[in-house]
Automatic annotation (TrEMBL):
EC numbers for this chain: 1.1.3.15
Residue positions binding FMN: S108, Q129, T157, K229, S251, D284, G285, G286, V287, R288, G307, R308
Protein name: (S)-2-hydroxy-acid oxidase
Organism classification: Eukaryota, Viridiplantae, Streptophyta, Embryophyta, Tracheophyta
Family classification: Belongs to the FMN-dependent alpha-hydroxy acid dehydrogenase family.
Cofactor dependence: FMN
Gene Ontology MF term list: (S)-2-hydroxy-acid oxidase activity; FMN binding
Domain named FMN hydroxy acid dehydrogenase: residues: 1-358
Binding site for glyoxylate: Y131, H253, R256
Length: 364
């Protein structure tokens, strides 16, 4: 590829060129047939924007609030693993880019930098993603460390009692490097006869019994608000409200867990309607354009989380690449808002999009 990338898909190609095949496949791949991975993006293409004209859009305001924190645009950095496989400085670089872009980064539980290193790298709002291990004391220790180091919320990932089957990782014999946050407490020596130890480590360490009633335990060990990530149904959204979480992230883990789970954009509205405004709903999965951000906001998301494109920017161009990725999405969202007659984020409404279901219904 010649010249500077002009969209997020071109960053993916730069990352492919920059990374060893094993690491690129680890970041880019999905579970089994990768249907959900691909459908996350394809489903956006079936939603049309309904622009309004002759609206004063001489000034566009992208800013919004997430859990009371003002950010420059409704675009957050999702928790993603092992940034040092993409860049020598890892999550520290990603955090600096988030601070420069005035947005929030959710640090992954399986980060390759410690949560203390990331916290000291810049002055910005940060969230911390948590899984729950069989050793609850280890999970509690990590939560306490996050709170002590100024993280502002927990992102509880709920869709991973086991690790999805990613065939590229098996073929590449991908194994986990040491995890800085847990290396003194947790062994990654689990063996597997398929060459990759990712699933074996998860099976030996993650608490597959963790369920709704245990969120009460999690809330007793922290003062941080808890967002629950990985919900795809009305039924689970209602349960999330009942157990008192501070928000929901509609997510299918980027298509990395259960293949043939629905594309997240196709179930976002179902979750939003079930919640009924009682807690905020955020969105994760398949966002590659500012028009995608606009569509998710129109269907009720308060903000979107970006995962793989951040990694691609990091691998291609380091901190500058991450900042470029975020800025590209912001620029595209700003243009979409202007051309759709929305001067501010709060002006984006359900009436600004038309789903495939509505299109098909109108043809009957």
């Amino acid at each position: 590829m010649v010249g500077e990338p002009v969209n997020l898909n071109e960053f993916q190609e730069l990352a492919r060129q920059a990374l060893p095949k094993m690491y690129y496949d680890f970041y880019a791949g999905g579970a089994e047939d990768q249907y959900t991975l691909e459908e996350n993006m394809e489903a956006f293409r079936r939603i049309m924007i309904r622009p309004r004209v002759l609206v004063d859009v001489s000034r566009i305001d992208l800013s919004t609030y997430v859990l009371g924190y003002n950010i420059s645009a409704p675009i957050l950095i999702a928790p993603t693993s092992l940034h040092k496989l993409a860049h020598p400085e890892g999550e520290v670089v990603t955090a600096r880019a988030a601070a420069a872009c005035k947005t929030i980064m959710a640090l992954s539980f399986t980060s390759s930098c410690t949560l203390e290193e990331v916290a000291s790298s810049c002055n910005a709002v940060r969230f911390f993603q948590i899984y729950v291990y069989k050793r609850r004391d280890l999970s509690a220790l990590l939560v306490q460390r996050a709170e002590r180091n100024g993280y502002k919320a927990l992102v509880l990932t709920a869709d991973s009692p086991r690790v999805g089957r990613k065939e590229a990782d098996i073929k590449n014999k991908m194994t986990l490097p040491k995890l800085k946050n847990t290396e003194r407490f947790l062994s990654l020596e689990a063996s597997s006869d398929n060459g990759s130890n990712l699933a074996a480590v998860a099976k030996e360490t993650k608490d597959a019994s963790f369920c709704w009633k245990d969120i009460e335990w999690l809330s007793t060990i922290t003062n941080m608000p808890i967002l629950i990530k990985g919900l795809l149904t009305r039924e689970d959204a209602i349960k999330a409200v009942k157990v008192g979480v501070a928000g929901i992230v509609v997510s299918n883990h980027g298509g990395r867990q259960l293949d043939y789970a629905p594309a997240t954009i196709t179930v976002l509205e179902e979750v939003v309607q079930a919640v009924g405004g009682r807690i905020p709903v955020f969105f994760d999965g398949g966002v590659r354009r500012g028009t995608d951000v606009f569509k998710a906001l129109a269907l009720g998301a308060q903000a979107v989380l970006i995962g793989r494109p951040i990694i691609y920017g990091l691998a291609a161009k380091g901190e500058y690449g991450v900042r470029q990725v975020i800025q590209m999405l912001k620029d595209e969202l700003e243009l979409t808002m202007a051309l759709s007659g929305c001067p501010s984020v709060k002006d984006i409404t359900r009436r600004h999009v038309r789903t495939e279901r509505e299109r098909l219904h109108s043809m009957l």
